[in-house]
Backbone:
């Protein structure tokens, strides 16, 4: 789905289209889970559940969707990525202060207050075996290649935005992206 299609979905969802909201969350959840796993890194992945963070990010974005004022598709994904970064930071801080209270955990299917678009997007993503293959393939990339792919594919930033974020030239970012995508494609095509 292109940035224009995402922008159209965002506009339609703002106008109250439940179908657009469902499609938007399904698309975003599939992109957010690998992003969250990568941002957690190996040390936090062992203690924090990426799907719990995904659920929290989707819930917060659903509750605060009226606060989103971006006009472009990339800004929607960037907004979700910022929510994810904040959620990861908050949970990592909490983890260092206290042990998780097992009684506070609620399985997704028991959480009655999860809105339907969020529940649907989570269910599709959680069941997706392709997401796990993608995570493993992304883990195998260099940090530089993985970061530029996450910014371009998952946050949907343009190359000028990526260059500004990374402090590199647009050409360097394009080259890193091309090399990273080649490595990712080769890794994904390997038999499992």
Residues:
């Amino acid at each position: 789905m292109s940035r224009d299609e995402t922008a159209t979905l965002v506009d339609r969802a703002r106008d109250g289209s439940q179908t657009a909201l469902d499609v938007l969350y399904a698309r975003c959840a599939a992109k957010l889970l690998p992003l969250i796993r990568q941002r957690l890194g190996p040390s936090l992945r062992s203690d924090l559940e990426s799907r719990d963070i995904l659920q929290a990010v989707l819930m917060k974005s659903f509750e605060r969707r009226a606060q989103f004022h971006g006009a472009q598709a990339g800004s929607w994904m960037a907004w979700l990525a910022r929510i994810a970064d904040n959620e990861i930071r908050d949970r990592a801080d909490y983890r260092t202060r206290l042990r998780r209270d097992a009684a506070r955990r609620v399985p997704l299917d028991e959480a009655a207050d999860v809105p339907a678009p969020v529940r649907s997007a989570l269910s599709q993503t959680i069941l997706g075996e392709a997401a796990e293959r993608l995570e493993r393939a992304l883990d195998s990339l260099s940090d530089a290649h993985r970061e530029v792919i996450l910014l371009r594919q998952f946050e949907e930033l343009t190359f000028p935005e990526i260059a500004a974020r990374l402090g590199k030239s647009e050409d360097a970012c394009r080259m890193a992206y091309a090399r990273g995508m080649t490595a990712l494609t080769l890794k994904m095509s390997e038999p499992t």
The two ends are 26 Å apart (CA to CA). The chain has nine helices and no strands. The chain has two domains: 1-127, 129-192.
